[in-house]
Design a protein that fits this description.
The structure is a single chain. The chain contains twelve helices and ten strands. With 280 residues, it is of the alpha/beta class. The longest helix is centred in the N-terminal third of the chain and has 19 residues. Bound molecules: S-adenosylmethionine.
Amino acid sequence: MFTLSVSEYDLLREFIEAHCGIAVGSDKQYLIETRLAKLVLEAGCGSYLELYNKVKYAEDPQLKIKIIDAMTTNETLWFRDDSPYQILETSLLPEIANRIQNNQQHQLSIWSAACSSGQEPYSIAMTIHEYCRKHPEHQFLKEKTRILATDISPSILMLARLARYDSIAMSRNMKSDYQERYFKQQGNAFVINPEITQMVKFQQFNLQNDMGMLGHFDVVFLRNVAIYFSVDFKKEVFHKIAMQMNRPGYLFLGASETINGYSQDFAAHQYERGYVYHLT
Ligand SMILES: C[S@@+](CC[C@H](N)C(=O)[O-])C[C@H]1O[C@@H](n2cnc3c(N)ncnc32)[C@H](O)[C@@H]1O
């Protein structure tokens, strides 16, 4: 095991923040050490400095991706925290379906902006199916919805696109009736049905990039990702997202995240089961 010197640590954390916005705190030396140790070996380097020089000066795009991949935290689960999905189903979808019915809006565009292995966008798609099942008069919503799911990590997106989950992933908050309705078991794997997967389009996207090409969204899930960003980058991301949203514009953050102090573009609205940020 190589040890990481303070100067190597500073070089690598600057590199990581510059290329994916993840701010590694000054007390997180162990994080870089443990997450990049394997890559130092794999890249045939004798030290963390050699790894840094290789990625910085040899302009090795594959190595850059591998470093970012290693530094991202992909922790996720089905219907995480439940309340965003309950608010979506009971409050937002009826409102949006009525607006579509009254020709005040044409479709429903949802963005899962740090989708990890897919549990978030697929949970959104299942929520829409559940809503349509319970409200046959609003069946059209399934056909009128597009869900864009993006993440910076190509390897996690590969898993998300596969839409195959093992029993450990399934045990993390997947309800048994949804499992029956929306999955087929193939050996040890649970595969999501096409009626759900076809609603979701995956794309690699770094939140540092220009969002103009992504289009406009009615609902954005930016959950459990801004927590890793610096104050300045949080402000930048919230503002860029606000510019991509249609009114009224609903933004969901993670349960431990807040927009207060970072953006004037949104205000918190209280719902029975939690709150959602609306465009101001
Ligand atoms: C902890 S997961 C959150 C997944 C999901 N939103 C949830 O709440 O369960 C954070 C995800 O953010 C992604 N991520 C980190 N930095 C990013 C960036 N600059 N642009 C896009 N995605 C990023 C990571 O690859 C990771 O999959």
